[in-house]
Specification:
Layout (H helix, E strand, L loop, with lengths): L4 H18 L5 H16 L3 H18 L2 H26 L6 H27 L6 H19 L11 H30 L4 H16 L3 H13 L7 H17 L3 H15 L18 H9 L4 H11 L5 E5 L5 E6 L7 H9 L6 E3 L2 E3 L1 E5 L8
Helix pairs in contact: 1-2, 1-4, 2-3, 3-4, 4-5, 4-6, 5-6, 6-7, 7-8, 8-9, 8-10, 9-10, 10-11
Length: about 375
């Protein structure tokens, strides 16, 4: 979730707000130098240098600054680390980056995510005032912390059992949802329903729910964001929202509506836009009954690993789910006379949460994958 222009604007406002009190606290020259250099480096995407100076500024503030200046410095450093985390994550996805460098970037990104999360939490634990500026800072921290949490769900190694890991992951996801909704509530009250920062959080919530295949909750937020598209200044966010919305429409068997959205994308970009494929992992919609049935099936993990290597791809089963949640089509994405039909038959036994939106049930199309696929 990229930082919006509004968030960047707030970032610089925070720095400027520090300037009003810096003149009362030594060393004046050093603080002012850091204040000038950090935004300049940030604008050039020189995150390493910017973070180094922001850490230095925070150290100064912890020693001699007011509580307000300390909290602002904490928030600014958290935002910078979050930005570098996202920047390096994008670099990792580039095919031009050597494997060794990707490993180094991955380690660096993980550290930044952990540090950013810690700093955002520190900021939120500090005593805050009730001025508009301070409340906006809080909403920014909540919004950015939620984004960090859902993009960095790696769990501690000491959490061993599947039940414990699932419970911890679920609690972090729930916490992220709470932070997003709190940020949205504050921004609506302080800035209005159609302010750019408010709409950025609306889009974050839409993307959050789509990521966890809760289409029923995602769609109202996408529709709200797109209804206010004339207020959206970031065209990248607009196109991203349109693509995600079209993807949900395709997944929920609404091709006609999806084609209308694709036309809007083409109008916005001036380029031909392909219709999205029904390429969504629907395994999170398996019901409790389906999961219980899955646990009773024979473990074939070693076989799955061997077949994946032989076919040089991750084994998936493409499915169609009817309006009641029943699997009516299941087609494995590989040809193997001995195992293909067993994969398909086992997936047909699973039950899914049906998709119902505004009182209308729709089929769903997508796929499922398990590290250990179920068998009869």
């Amino acid at each position: 979730m990229a930082m919006t222009k509004k968030a960047v604007f707030l970032f610089f406002c925070f720095l400027l707000s520090l300037q009003t009190t810096f003149s009362q606290n030594p060393p004046i020259d050093e603080r002012q130098r850091l204040m000038q250099q950090i935004p300049a480096l940030y604008n050039q995407a020189k995150f390493d240098e910017a973070i180094s100076l922001a850490e230095k500024l925070l150290k100064i503030e912890r020693k001699t600054g007011t509580p307000e200046n300390v909290s602002t410095a904490v928030l600014n450093l958290a935002i910078l680390r979050k930005e570098r985390f996202q920047f390096n994550r994008r670099k990792i996805g580039s095919p031009q980056i050597p494997v060794r460098e990707k490993i180094e970037l991955s380690e660096k990104a993980e550290k930044d995510a952990d540090e950013a999360e810690m700093l955002f939490r520190e900021f939120l634990e500090m005593k805050r005032g009730n001025t508009k500026s301070e409340l906006l800072q809080t909403s920014t921290a909540q919004n950015e912390l939620a984004g960090i949490i859902i993009n960095n769900l790696d769990l501690p190694d000491n959490v061993k059992t599947p039940q414990a890991r699932t419970s911890l992951a679920r609690s972090r996801i729930d916490e992220a949802e709470s932070f997003f909704t709190q940020a949205l509530d504050r921004r609506e009250k302080l800035l209005g329903a159609n302010d750019e920062a408010t709409l950025a959080t609306v889009l974050n919530l839409a993307d959050f729910y789509r990521q966890y295949v809760n289409f029923e909750k995602a769609l109202p937020f996408y529709e709200r964001f797109l209804a206010a598209k004339d207020k959206v200044k970031n065209s990248t966010n607009l196109v991203s929202a349109l693509r995600s919305y079209a993807s949900i429409l395709i997944t929920t068997d609404q091709e006609g509506k999806a084609r209308e959205i694709v036309k809007q994308i083409e109008s916005a970009t001036g380029k031909i836009e392909p219709l999205p494929a029904a390429d969504v992992n629907l395994s999170l919609r398996i019901t409790r009954t389906g999961l219980a049935r899955l646990q009773q099936m024979e473990n074939k993990g070693e076989l799955i690993e061997r077949l994946s290597k032989e076919h040089k791809k991750r084994l998936k089963v493409n499915i169609v789910i009817d309006e009641t949640g029943k699997v009516i089509e299941a087609v494995a994405n590989f040809d193997d006379e001995k195992w293909k039909s067993q994969f398909e038959q086992s997936v047909r036994q699973l039950a899914f949460s049906p998709f119902v939106y505004k009182g209308t049930a729709q089929k769903m199309r997508g796929w499922v994958f398990y590290p250990q696929l179920p068998f009869k």
